[in-house]
Design goal:
The complex is a heterodimer of chains A (959) and B (121).
Chain A: H1 2-7, H2 9-76, H3 79-100, H4 107-135, H5 139-147, H6 151-228, H7 243-312, H8 316-330, E1 335-340, E2 347-350, H9 354-362, H10 369-375, E3 379-384, H11 387-390, E4 398-408, E5 411-421, H12 427-466, E6 470-475, E7 480-483, H13 485-491, H14 504-512, H15 517-531, E8 540-544, E9 552-562, E10 565-575, H16 577-613, H17 618-649, E11 658-661, H18 662-676, E12 680-686, E13 692-695, H19 697-713, E14 719-728, E15 731-737, H20 772-782, E16 786-792, E17 796-804, E18 823-826, H21 830-842, E19 847-850, H22 853-862, E20 867-870, H23 880-889, E21 898-902, H24 907-913, E22 917-920, H25 925-940, H26 950-958
Chain B: E1 3-8, H1 12-22, E2 27-32, H2 35-44, E3 49-53, H3 61-70, E4 78-82, H4 87-96, E5 100-103, H5 108-120
Parallel strand pairs in B: 1-2, 1-3, 3-4, 4-5
Classes of the chains: A alpha+beta (959), B alpha/beta (121).
């Protein structure tokens, strides 16, 4: 039993706890029973006392009643009901006494009861006596009885006695309750003591448990921490048989195991150390080997790299650099150079200064390399190392220069020179290099070939790109091989990735969507035929593009053959939009002209035929004849207008320009109308006094005729026709205002186009070719002028003509004396020469004129003009170009500014040959003056204001 | 009862020429100065023949024909008179609905006999 107890801590704990609980239970039951018994006793006693009290009270009541009845009888002397009631009460008292008697415990009470009973008996006797008195009706006797015999006293006495009894009982009840309260208080004190006792027990138990479990655990923890810090301690509590003992034992076992393992580890560690030492030494050996290997590997890598670049590099400089760099590494050398023996002496070097390189290349033919080149054999030169090569070595060091020729087709194409300081080149090294040099020669050949073809390709490409046609080369499968730039810009047929070598499907789908829908199928089958090597139905095709604006493109092809073998095709796309437009316009013009001519022709022919075929009255004949005449005249003017327009559009209209007074010319025209038209009043207003322009008077008359006749024609009801002159900013404006029909707003913009006539019934009667305004505008433009129109329908129109005025004075004019030699005009057209002379003399220059190049050269021997105005197409054998060249070649004349004045549009050539300005005819003469001033005067006289020298002018003109 | 004709021509002189050419025959001739007027007259009258110029203001002769024919008037005979003398123009006029075609300049004698033939049928 004792062993079981000791072997388990938990069991001990259970026992302790059970004992403790039992104690609590027993004490609680004891206390409960005790308090129960107190209460029982109290209740029993109270019940008894209450009964006694009740009886006593009832007895008292009965006594009182009886006395009441007795007195009633004695007072009223009525037997009934008093007497009988008295009797009944008397009996009731007996009953009450009998009931009360067993309840009385104390002697005192019993004595009291006995006393009561005695007194009652006395009272009864007395009452009998009194009853007798009543019967006798002896009132005095009654009084005597009452007073002497103590009747009343007796009664009172009895009553008091009973009352005492009752109050005694009440007292007793009160005492009992007090007793109960006291006991309960005691019980509570007892309970408090009991709880204190329990706490005491619990504390003691906890202390015991702590001592039995906590302390040993603490000791174990201490032991383990000491153990882990390396102290050698015995584990406590090993011998205990409970759980702690168990714990301590396994703990002990663990420690023992750890100590054993540690020993084993130390042993094996020592073995490992031994082995690692061995390994270290073998590793060192290996590293030595690896170093050697690495050197070899690097050489191999350089060889590979060299081979790679020899095989794949197409850039010459890159290749040379790669050759020299890798060769130096392969031969474990310090520096070197490779130079190609071509014209450019392309080279690459490593470790050599630029200066040295050039020096070396310059001495290729007389330096130590000559031997290698001549013998086509490698060659080694040994020499003492330069300071730079030897470095910090104090001793004498030798450097070895290895010269290796690169031979191709029995010719040395390049020379390699590689230098190694300190170590000589071994024969096996050098023989290896010989093999490499052959590879290098092949690579150099290849690269030269590549460069040649690349250059040719570039040239071809540039040629293709300068051609205005779009060109596309496709192979037999239809894959694009090349396109030129024009193809991309004109047709957007190129691809955004820049790669245009696309399959047929790729490029044709991109191309065909650009072709207008109507032409697409034709183009498609054309392309298919050509690519297949078949001749399409048409040799060329014109198609329209989908672009805005649409282009018209002519497409043709060429099949390519290599011998007899069909290898592909070339497509050419030519933009003929311009030609097409011109064509359209021409067709339109022809058709309109034919229509316009047919109408008057119909009248002429028709009426003539009528006159021939019919018998007509004379007045009708006259009418017909006048109609024929009018229509024939109309026909003539139409034809003249056509010819005018035709000439102007071809630029072949000749203008006989001179200095004219515009006002005089115009007034002449107006005067001629004054005579014919009675319904219109012609008014001329003038707000300027400058009217001089350079112009062709006849042509200007034609223009004015047109405007005035229009003004007359389109104001059929008459009215004023006002012509107003006004000057503004070097321009002369002429307004021609009528009060006629006016022009609809939407017609204004089309007014000056050919054959345009405003259609409405008011105008039907008014004839015209529809060309007058177009011709007028052309003439005005040829005079550097213009025409504008404003109009209000129903109120009239105003045409405004603009002409440039002749500038009377220049803002900058050269000083006399400086221009003695003046300007030489070389021009075979006399009238133009005159116009130019007039223009430049007016600006203050002196002018000389000659008609041929030969004459000009002759003149230049005698004079040095300030400038030369030079025509290109000249009389005689010399052209203007020849004169220009001759002037620029001579030291004396080459500083003279030259102003080319020609119809030829070779501006570029002119400037290249040294011309200062290039004026394309026809040009406004003042442009020449401007240019002269810019080139001649401004250079010499900045900001000087000068007066023109008219004496010189005249001299120039008379020349 | 004379036959009824319409001459639509904007050039007054030519109109006079046509009318004078046809005046000896007993025709009742209306004149129109432009396309719109011609269309109006055709719509409101029963002409035995309309001589229609091609190039007219307001409406061209071709537009007049197109409108007349599109409104279901297929009976009225129309002769197209035009300075557009190409074969192509004739084809266009005929396909639009012109019955006859004569190009300018025309011979009045030929015109008179053509009109006589057409109306004599």
């Amino acid at each position: 039993m004792n062993r079981r107890w000791k072997s388990s801590l938990s069991r001990q704990f259970v026992w302790f706890m059970s004992g403790f609980l039992l104690l609590i239970l027993i004490a609680a039951v004891g206390l409960g029973l005790y308090s129960q018994s107190i209460e029982d006793k109290y209740e029993k006693k109270v019940v008894d006392l209450r009964k006694k009290q009740q009886y006593a009270v009832e007895l008292e009541d009965s006594l009182n009643d009886m006395f009441f009845e007795a007195r009633g009888y004695l007072g009223f002397r009525l037997e009934e009901p008093f007497l009988s009631n008295y009797e009944a009460k008397k009996n009731s008292i007996v009953d009450k006494i009998n009931q009360l008697e067993p309840e009385l415990e104390s002697t005192e009470e019993r004595e009291y009861l006995t006393y009561l009973q005695d007194k009652l008996i006395n009272y009864y006797k007395l009452f009998e006596n009194a009853k007798g008195q009543v019967a006798n009706d002896n009132t005095a006797g009654l009084q005597i009885l009452s007073q002497n015999q103590g009747g009343s006293n007796l009664v009172y006495n009895l009553r008091d006695q009973t009352r005492n009894l009752v109050s005694d009982v009440e007292n007793e009840i009160y005492a009992t309750e007090q007793n109960l309260i006291d006991r309960l208080a005691n019980l509570q004190i007892l309970f408090v003591f009991f709880v204190v006792f329990l706490l005491l027990i619990a504390t003691i138990l906890a202390g015991i448990m702590a001592r039995r479990i906590g302390k040993p655990l603490q000791e174990l923890a201490l032991a383990s921490s000491q153990m882990s810090s390396g102290e050698n301690v015995a584990v406590p509590h090993v011998k205990r048989s409970d759980e702690l003992g168990e714990l301590a034992r396994s703990f002990n076992l663990m420690i023992t195991n750890i100590q054993q393992n540690e020993k084993a580890l130390i042993t094996s560690n020592e073995t490992l150390l031994e082995q690692s030492k061995e390994l270290q030494s073998s590793k060192d050996t290996l590293e030595e080997n690896v170093k050697v290997m690495n050197v070899q590997k690097q050489v191999l890598e350089h060889r590979n790299e060299l081979n790679r670049s020899l095989a794949s590099t197409l850039n010459k400089n890159e290749l040379l650099q790669s050759i020299i760099t890798n060769m130096i590494h392969i031969l474990s050398s310090d520096k070197g150079i490779i130079v190609m023996l071509n014209q450019g002496k392309d080279y690459a070097s490593l470790g050599i200064s630029q200066e040295k390189v050039h020096e070396w290349i310059d001495h290729l033919t007389d330096g130590p390399g000559v031997k290698a080149i001549q013998q086509m054999q490698y060659h080694i030169v040994q020499r003492s190392a330069s300071v730079g090569e030897a470095g910090y070595h104090g001793d004498k060091v030798l450097s070895n220069d290895l010269y290796i020729p690169v031979v191709s087709n029995n010719k040395v194409v390049a020379l390699l020179c590689i230098t190694r300081t300190g170590v000589e080149y071994m024969p096996e090294e050098v023989s290896e290099i010989n093999g490499l040099s052959r590879q290098i020669s092949l690579a150099l050949d290849k690269i030269l070939l590549y460069e040649t073809t690349e250059n040719e390709r570039q040239v071809n490409r540039e040629i293709l790109n300068t051609i205005r046609e779009g060109i596309q080369l496709v192979d037999r499968e239809g894959t694009t091989r090349a396109v030129n730039d024009q193809m991309c810009t004109m047709l957007d047929a190129c691809f955004p990735d820049g790669v245009n070598e696309k399959t047929f499907v790729e490029w044709s789908s991109k191309f065909l969507v650009q072709v207008a829908l109507d032409d697409r199928n034709a183009v498609k089958s054309y392309v298919h035929d050509v690519i297949a090597g078949v001749k399409p139905k048409q040799s060329e095709l014109i198609y329209q593009t989908n672009t805005e604006p649409a282009l018209f493109i002519q497409m043709y092809y060429e099949h390519l053959y290599n011998g007899d073998k069909f290898i592909g095709s070339i497509f050419v796309h030519r933009d003929i939009t311009r030609e097409h437009e011109v064509d359209e316009m021409k067709n339109e013009f022809v058709s309109t002209v034919s229509h316009e001519l047919r109408t008057p022709l119909s009248s002429v022919l028709g009426f003539t035929e009528l006159m021939l075929s019919k018998e007509l009255k004379p007045e009708k004949q006259k009418k017909y004849l006048s109609t024929i005449y009018k229509e024939a005249k109309r026909l003539t003017s139409l034809i003249n207008d056509f010819l005018d327009i035709q000439r102007m559009e071809a630029g072949k209209q000749n203008y006989d320009k001179e200095r004219i007074n515009l006002k005089e010319v115009i007034e002449e025209v107006i005067d001629s109308y004054r005579v014919h038209s009675q319904f219109h009043s012609f008014i001329v207003e003038d707000t300027t006094n400058e009217h001089e322009i350079i112009g062709d008077a006849d042509k200007i008359k034609q223009v004015m005729n047109n405007f005035i006749s229009n003004a007359v024609k389109y104001s059929p009801k008459g009215g004023k026709i006002v012509t107003r002159f006004r000057g503004e900013e070097g321009q002369l404006y002429v307004d021609i205002k009528d009060e006629g029909l006016g022009i609809p707003h939407d017609a204004l913009s089309k007014l000056f186009t050919k054959f345009y006539r405003v259609d409405n019934s008011d105008r039907r009667q008014i004839g015209g070719t529809g060309l007058g305004l177009a011709i007028s505008k052309e003439i005005l433009l040829a005079h550097d002028g213009d025409v504008e129109v404003t109009s209000e329908l129903g109120k009239g129109s105003t045409f405004t003509l603009v002409f440039p005025l002749i500038r009377e004075k220049l803002p900058l004019e050269p000083k006399s004396g400086e221009l003695e030699e003046g300007v030489l005009i070389v021009e075979d057209d006399d009238s133009l020469a005159l116009l130019l002379m007039e223009e430049i003399t007016e600006s203050g220059f002196t002018a000389h004129h000659c008609r041929s190049g030969e004459a000009a050269i002759k003149l230049l021997e005698k004079m040095t003009p300030k400038g030369i105005v030079l025509d290109i197409m000249l009389d005689g054998r010399m052209s203007g170009w020849d004169v220009l060249k001759a002037v620029k070649e001579s030291e004396r004349t080459k500083g003279i500014p030259i102003f080319v004045s020609t119809v030829s549009e070779e501006k570029q050539r002119g400037f290249e040959l040294g011309a200062n300005d290039y004026l394309i005819k026809p040009y406004p003469p003042q442009n020449l003056t401007k240019s002269l001033i810019k080139s001649i005067v401004n250079k010499k006289n900045n900001g000087k204001i000068l007066v023109p020298d008219y004496s010189l002018t005249e001299k120039g003109l008379s020349d | 009862m004379g036959l009824k004709l319409l001459v639509a021509e904007d050039e007054e002189i030519l109109r006079m020429l046509i009318v004078d050419t046809l005046e000896d025959d007993d025709y009742e001739i209306d004149e129109a100065e432009d396309g719109a007027e011609a269309y109006e007259l055709i719509s409101n009258n029963d002409y035995d023949l309309v001589l229609l110029d091609y190039m007219m203001p307001e409406m061209t002769g071709l537009e007049v024909i197109k409108k007349v024919r599109s409104e279901g008037n297929m009976d009225v005979k129309i002769m197209m008179l035009t300075a557009k003398a190409q074969k192509k123009d004739e084809e266009i006029a005929r396909s639009t609905g012109a019955n006859y075609f004569i190009s300018k300049p025309f011979s009045p004698v030929v015109l008179a006999s053509m009109v006589g033939d057409i109306l004599g049928e």
